[in-house]
Please model this.
Amino acid sequence: MGMIGSRVERLEDRDLLRGKGRFVDDVVLPNMLHAAFVRSPHGHAAIRGIAKAQAAALPGVHAVLAREDLLPHLRNERLVVGLPSKSYKQDLNRPVLAIDEVVHVGEPVAIVVADDRYVAEDGAALVEIEYDPLPAVADCCAALAPGAPVVHRGAPHNLLAEFRMGYGDADAAFAKAAHVFSESLWQHRGGSHSIECRGAVAAYDAIEDRLTLWSSTQMPHQAMRQLCDMLGRDENRVRVVTPDIGGGFGPKLVFYPEDVATALAAIILGRPVKWIEDRREHFVATTQERDQYWDVEIAVDRDARILGIRGTIVHDHGAYTARGVNLPHNSAETVPLQYDVPAYAMNVR
Model:
């Protein structure tokens, strides 16, 4: 019997409905340690120094790791995960841990590894970071204004990408229109906020020289390749396992600095390390969507038949390239939908 028209049973339902699901926080390994991240409280600041001694002296803390501690184990310290596009005006990839500058609230600066999460959080609070606050801009339209503070020091501007999408002759459609209606819209930012936040458990087998990462990710193969690239390891020396996932909604398609830092902590310490994102971290450190300004027009004839649509979108992509321009691309391409729109033009920045 073929698949078309047949009833296909879901594989995961039996365990989930009986309370036997296995999520990343259910992964418990012998001698496992727990991690917490020290995150930036600033939207933009230079890092002048990191004092780790007080946190490292706290009983139960096994390591306080900053960028310089991870560098010897990295072939590439930036997460090059943006989908290719010729629309890029600059390419700004996230570091595993902040280098000499933080560019958004919640950016990870250091990782504290301890006997349990409580001690790790206490240790993170004891890490002293000397910041030099810099001008920041939080509104995407304001970021494109002449003279706006740049999100990254040394960047020429704040425009990550620009592209035009359309077909037909929109200008001609508007020139012959009997009526033109315009609207300015703001689509606010949204977060996924699945029941399960992100999380990772890493274990390193020194005998086999094999790294295993359990991650609440929707892209285990990409995560494996990313780890191989950044750590300079062969594919047969890295394994990424995706357990049951308590919701994804997009952000778990992205590979994150915390995955790399947790894996490196396990390699450096020679013990399994677990990190589970809390809800506050999800607000400030997980990719979000939208926050768009739309200025759009629609041209119609005397019978209100659509002749054309044109406009502009300004999309807040955040502080880094991250996954690329897929979100604003999706926004622009879905405007016509099932309607008969003879001409369409949308400029996206």
Notes: The radius of gyration is 24 Å.
